[in-house]
């Protein structure tokens, strides 16, 4: 198995993937290329320049999953009366995909082409695995399924589908809780910063008041000493004029 394809995606790696995916040259090549393996290989090479190792196939699978999650949330939010959902990549993908008109013109052809290529790859992998199994165990014999077994299998598929839907709803609800928690933390930090700013302003005003008061005190002292000096000089001159002559 390709080591790059088996690695999990970190948030920083997804951020880098979306940044490269949003580049004009990548978008232009995705719109014009008949088959886009080379484009995703190019995305993989650009990630490698950032010391992020993921194969082109892995990049395509991750982007496909991100776009599917985005479309599911977008469809849900467009339903009247439904609680708005989001995830950590929704705003970034909405900036890339939100202004696209679905199923029209070349964009629709490209979307269908990408889907067909993805399905073709999956079918090819399944056929290869089937060929390998036939080589080991021989061709399997067809088995007729009874109506009861068919109903049981259909019921199991419905339960599995319901279970997966419930898991997705739980995941979306958890993301919404985390989003609200982040918003509350951001509001708290904003209030804290505003409180600190107000406290600094009050301290600045207090220091300015103390400095002004000190300056007024020094000015008063200078004026008082000046008056005392003038008074002393006046008394000295008065005493010199009134002193009796010496014999």
Shape: elongated
* Percentage beta strand: under 5%
Instruction: Name the structural class.
Output: mainly alpha
Estimated radius of gyration: 39 Å
Number of helices: 8
- End-to-end Cα distance, whole Å, is 130 Å
Largest sheet: none
Overall mean pLDDT stands at 79
Q: What are the secondary-structure elements, in order, as H or E?
A: HHHHHHHH
Overview of this protein structure:
This protein has 247 residues and is mainly α. It has eight helices and no strands.
For this entry, give a set of tags.
about 80% helix, 8 helices, disordered N terminus, mainly alpha, about 0% strand, about 250 residues, elongated
Give the topology:
Elements: H1 3-6, H2 11-21, H3 24-32, H4 37-49, H5 56-77, H6 90-97, H7 105-137, H8 147-242
Helix pairs in contact: 4-5
Summarize the structure.
It is built from eight helices and no strands. With 247 residues, it is an all-alpha fold.
């Amino acid at each position: 198995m390709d080591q790059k394809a088996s690695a999990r995606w970190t948030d920083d790696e997804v951020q880098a993937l979306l940044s490269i995916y949003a580049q004009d040259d990548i978008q232009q090549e995705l719109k014009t290329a008949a088959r886009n393996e080379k484009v995703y290989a190019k995305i993989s090479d650009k990630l490698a320049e950032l010391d992020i190792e993921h194969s082109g196939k892995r990049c395509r699978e991750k982007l496909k999953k991100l776009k599917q999650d985005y479309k599911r949330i977008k469809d849900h939010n467009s339903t009247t009366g439904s609680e708005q959902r989001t995830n950590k990549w929704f705003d970034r993908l909405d900036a890339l995909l939100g202004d696209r008109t679905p199923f029209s013109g070349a964009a629709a052809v490209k979307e269908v082409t990408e889907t067909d290529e993805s399905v073709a790859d999956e079918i090819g992998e399944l056929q290869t695995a089937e060929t390998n199994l036939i080589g080991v165990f021989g061709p399997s014999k067809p088995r007729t399924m009874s109506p009861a077994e068919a109903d049981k299998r259909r019921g199991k598929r419905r339960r599995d589908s319901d279970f997966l839907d419930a898991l997705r709803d739980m995941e979306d609800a958890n993301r919404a809780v985390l989003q609200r928690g982040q918003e509350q933390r951001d509001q708290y930090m904003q209030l804290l910063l505003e409180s600190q700013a107000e406290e600094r302003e009050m301290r600045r005003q207090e220091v300015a008041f103390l400095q002004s008061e000190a300056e007024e005190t020094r000015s008063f002292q200078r004026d008082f000493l000046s008056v005392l000096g003038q008074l002393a000089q006046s008394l000295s001159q008065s005493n010199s004029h009134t002193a009796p002559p010496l014999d």
